[in-house]
Amino acid sequence: MKVKILRTMIIGFTIICLVAFSMISIFAAPGGPEWAVDANGNITVDGQEFVIKGGSWFGLEGRHEPSDDPDNPSGAPMELYIGNVFWQPSDRTHDSDIAEFMELGFNTVRIPISPQTLDPDDPQAQEEFKKNSESVRYATSYEELCAVIEKCDAAGMYVLLDLHSCSNYLGWRAGRFDARPPFVDNTREDYDFMREDCSCAASGNPSGVDIVQPYDANAWLDDLATLAGLSEELGVDNIMGIDIFNEPWDYSWDEWKGYIEDAYDTVSAVDPNILIFAQGIGSSSGNQDGTPDSITETPNGDPDLNPNWGENLYEAGDNPPDIPKEKLVFSPHTYGPSVFVQRMFMDPSQPECEGLEEEEAAANECNIVINPELLEQGWEEHFGYLVDLGYAIVPGEWGGNSEWPNNAELRKQDMFDYITDTTIDLQWQQAFANYLIKKGIKSNFYWAINPESGDTGGIYNHAYDPVSNTAGWGSWLDVNQDKLNLLKSIWQSDGTIQPTTQPTTKPTTQPSGDVTAKTTVVNDWGSGGQLSVVVTNNTSSATNGWSVTINVPGTITSIWNAVGSGSGSVTISNISWNAVIPAGGSVEVGLTYSK
User: Fold this and answer.
1) What is the pLDDT of residues 72-104, one digit of tens each?
2) Among 65, 247, 358, 381, the one annotated catalytic
3) Is 103 a catalytic site residue?
4) Same domain, 482 and 546
5) ∠ CA 347-189-334 to the nearest 5 degrees?
6) Mean pLDDT over residues 210-224, rounded?
7) Domain range holding 442?
8) Tag placement on the chain: N or C end, fewer CB within 10 Å?
9) Numbers of helices and strands, H then E, in the chain
10) What does the alpha-carbon distance between residue 227 and residue 238 come to, in Å, rounded to a whole number?
């Protein structure tokens, strides 16, 4: 009897231990660093403040092949751009790219993916459609995703996983889980990249839809759970968060707020150590929900300061998601004219252009003016005010083509061929960088590191030119130093506005009359304005550096194509790439000032 009782006690104790161990296994957090947001809105890792020096590295979310591609016409293969394509091979690898990114100062990459990236059996995920050189290809897109996360972990690079769309075909258009045609780009002319034959809706699709990839909130939550489990599956500790859905511009705030809460519940149940990155919405909702004739305007503040897709967090302050503040990062997107010419870029001296955008602005040959004070009003009411409420704000996408409209897709070059000032988008980027510095926002993700974006290019310059070198697609050149310097001015900011570049060639002061400057006030908005400065070499030989003194009717707030600061009588000098002005030649400098 005693033996039986003892055996029963042992069995009972064993069961209790097993149950207890199982409960610990169920509820214990995965290993790895603890990511959080402190009371001041700073990102922290294991209690230490961490500045995200980030950039997007894209391709795995789905490319868009031309309709005349011989192997995959209008396809959507999922593969990272790495600067090594089979028709123009290089020695670049995933490992060497990551090492270079870190040398440039990046410590985090944002990797966009689609649901199909996670499916090893998806037709567009297969090696037969890949464009990278054979030596750096992976059998499936999911295999490449996992390998890159592991390579980043080994190198000390952190990763933000971005669920970029409901479909590798729809890409940026989606705006919602169940997006269906008609899409916003369906009226573009001379445009090879429409997707009117594709849908993420299981039903209610218009005629002409041939590719259906059904997606809904349940499938989305399943994908978030998969992403949240990758740290444990791969044995890595470099995944710092999930950007839960890219540019959900077609939802109302109440809808999107509820989805943010659902995302937190799902992700934290799998990995409570990582962060939830939530973008803003747009200026209207219900565009692509199957009822295109019933569209609802969403509050976003001043209607003349229209938000970019993903920028609108106007309602979040009064109606925030019900999740722990220390796990939430608001991640707005915003862009300048190289992505979309908005109404707030119109020249106030052209009243006929008031309220016009993109195609209509181009058709009316509207001048484009970057007014930093006006733009800051929009950024402040769309998301900047949340900084003062203690929320973490990390812009998830911003950037641009610094020479726009040069190097843009041919369609846009033709539309805006009347624009002669090719520094306009650089002016916008400088204005946004200055705003981040003023707000104390250091963490951000630049779009993009790789240069294959037709709208923005990247940190690397691209061998591709839509006119002179179409075979250069996918080949990377040197680093765009102006963009990198701009990023570093934010990362290292002490609150002081800095110029976009620093001179690397020592300026040589020219004798009076040899190099002259002609200044023109191109815009005046009362509290400030914009100057154009044409610097001319009047000698018979090229300059080797230059500096000129000009009169500024205020204090310089931003400057491009030169360096200089101050007010009144100011000396400005060349930057590295325009130190040489040929005999009789000129360069144009731009600056904005406050009075």
Assistant:
1) 999 999 999 999 999 999 999 999 999 999 999
2) 247
3) no
4) no
5) 45
6) 98
7) 51-491
8) N
9) 11, 22
10) 13
